[in-house]
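User: For my dataset I need records formatted as: sequence, then structure tokens, nothing else. Please produce one.
Assistant:
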Amino acid sequence: MMWLLTIAFASADFPDAVEAALQEAEAQGLPEGILDDKAAEGLAKGLPPQRVAGALSGMTPGLVEAQSLTNSDNPQLLLAAAAALQAGASPTAVSSLNSSGAVWALGDLIHQGHEADDALDLVRAAEASGTDAVTGLASASASLLAGGQGHQAVAAHLNSALSLGLSPVAVAAQPGLVDIAMANDAKNKDSKSKSKSKSSGNNPGNGNGNGNGNGNGNGNGNGNGNGN
């Protein structure tokens, strides 16, 4: 029922205190309506309008900082950047990422307790693997942490998965996939190496041909010349 209440508040006028906080955010140069969903969500939970207004006013400075950092008016990117900065991500890290999804993942990972640098490395690896990897990264980390692995172990596990082209979500559901994939990868490399060595050993054609040709030619030529 929460979504129905949210829609109801979003489509109606907000209480005066909430409306004032929303207008103040827009006066600071933020995109129109950027905090409407947050306001509707708070009211739908039954929070007093003054408390919702206070929360919105508290979010505004972070969003203004995010807007200045990203030079963007994309509401999702601004919300993600503000959340990541609040979680402890550096401005440089936030501005280095390519999408709001990646920035959300960075903030979520840090919020889970990952070191900021480890979180950034994971998100960059996920970005290199594709959108699906970025989308499922934080939830996969949460699942592995809930399963009892430490933060460094989870980071190493997910980095290995991404380097092997595995989905973080699939790895969280079946952690043993990484070991299976690594074993298969090593087996394939060993097989290719043996095949290459065998192929080289069974193909001495150039050496034999040159040796026979040169030896016969030189021997015949020298013998005939000396005899005459």
